[in-house]
Amino acid sequence: MIQDTIHEKFVERYGEHPQLFSAPGRINVIGEHTDYNDGFVLPAAINKRIYFALKKNDSGQCRIYAHDIDEEYTFPADQKEPVKKTWVNYPLGVIREMMKIREFNLTGFDCIFGGDLPLGAGLSSSAALETGFAHAINEIFEVGVEPAQIMHLSQNAEHNFAGMQCGIMDQFAAVYGKKGHVVKLDCRSLDSDYYPLHFKDYQLILCNSNVQHELASSEYNVRRKQCEEGVGIIKQNHPSVKNLRDVTFDMLEEHQDQMDEVVLDRCLYVLRENERVHDTCEKLQENDVDAIGRNLYLSHKGLSEMYEVSCDETDFLVDLTKDMEYVKGARMMGGGFGGSTINLVKIDSMEEFEERLAKAYYDKFSIQADFFEVETDDGIKSH
Ligand code: GLA
What we know:
Helix content is 42%, strand content 23%. It has 383 residues and is an alpha+beta fold. Helix 8 (261-285) runs antiparallel to helix 9 (289-306) and helix 10 (312-321) packs antiparallel against helix 11 (350-365).
């Protein structure tokens, strides 16, 4: 098992027995780019995880080894500024953000992390890295922060050290995910409702396009700004509006002439996507796979044409499924510009689905796609 490998690697490298912790990746059934607009999302933690082997070393140095890419980096315990090595800024950011909440005596540590959660697949490996590492540091140094604080400080680490103005969905799912369930999260109040995830004869399958275009984080921050621009215009007549969560279709219509067409499309997409989250939750309870599938396709259409965060590869993967009678719905998942698609597929046709998709995708882009059947899991853990 992968956690044994991480443990053994630690003993081999640092000659001591560490403690082991982990955090999961996440899927999102529906509700994309709604979280930072104070809207609704429907994610779940999955059984692809990052494991952290950690032990204090009392040397004043923090030594971290990234097993998946075979790289080690050491920084002093009082390192305050981000460093050049991108992946280091996640754990470093977590430490700095945790210190802001509660000062603790960071005497140095050795850490190895790695797992079976692919990077850049839209499964939020960054939130798993942040929350899992935060959990590990919290336990080892007995810092005493609460799970909700782990969630928030991890998001802040991403904002302030990785430069991505992400919403709260990924960190929420990584901390509060529950095996067997998806969770509807109100990203304003942080109220959550868990729904059992099963579709009788259907199953969610992820298809990793294995592309991640450069644009992902810069365009993400641009989308945030465009939503804020729309809100700014509506606010002039409706001062109680704080963000898109408070905007109605009528308000948008009332202001459409004052808005840039692109901004209008971005806002309209978000309003509709929030509606689809509510509807999908209802349909989940009725086990109405047809309606859920339709919502997935509509979500993709909106993301591709109105929010413009898809790309040729994920558009192609979704379009292909439309001719497959055993697929109810599909859409790109996560921030966009690559990553994975999520597909609702009849269980007894899964093999055919994978073969057809893999072949057509390879023929077109010369890229091998990867497939995972979604299995939900719990959030951050000590082992
Ligand atoms: C990324 C962000 C999330 C969310 C999604 C899009 O995964 O980290 O906060 O905004 O994109 O839904």
